[in-house]
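Quick one, T. Sequence first:
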Amino acid sequence: MIDFNNVYIDYAVRMAAAVVCGLFLGIERKSRRQAVGMRTLVLISVSSAMLTIISVALAEFPNLHSPHSISGDPTRIASGIITGIGFMGAGEILHSGLNIRGLTSAAVIWTSSALGIACGAGYFYIAGITLFVTFLSLLLLKKVEMRLFPAEKSRTLKIVCVGMDVDFEKIQREIDSSGLVQRDVNIKKSLESDRVELKFSVNTPNHFNIFQFTEKMMQVEKILEVSIE
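Structure tokens:
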């Protein structure tokens, strides 16, 4: 005889755990001003938990609600959840110029779904460890990455100068001293005029002062224009 009170209490605890996981991840994302927030991740986590509970219940108690119910493999619904969440995560990834944004948020969406599945299946210990490691990664590894790899954003530095006798070495020194990491350079010279256009593919640090850099570059002789895109 199945004790329905204990079963429903168990289901409620699993759903509540999924809410907590989604809520914590949503708070972390919103604190970084990301589009994915508390409502989205709570809904993902809770719905994943609900589908997992249903799939497990159908396997354990096939005739619980209907004599015509069919038992099945509980992993099939879980695999379907992961596939569906993959499409949602892909929609969060944006390509802005030379930079790609939203990869972390897409990973958080996928993790929220996985946490919901774990809570729905009753694996609270695994869900707790995963939530702890996820928070540790989101809060601490960002600082570690900024310290080890300060130049993060990819941009194009465009310098227009007069003639080929401009002081390229001084330009290079100013670029290096400003914290920019140069990856590539292209030179374009017009046959109709003496204008030379230099295009540098660079990585800029998070606290890059574009006004100070532009002012320094404009002091180099024969430079007419400096822009960063």
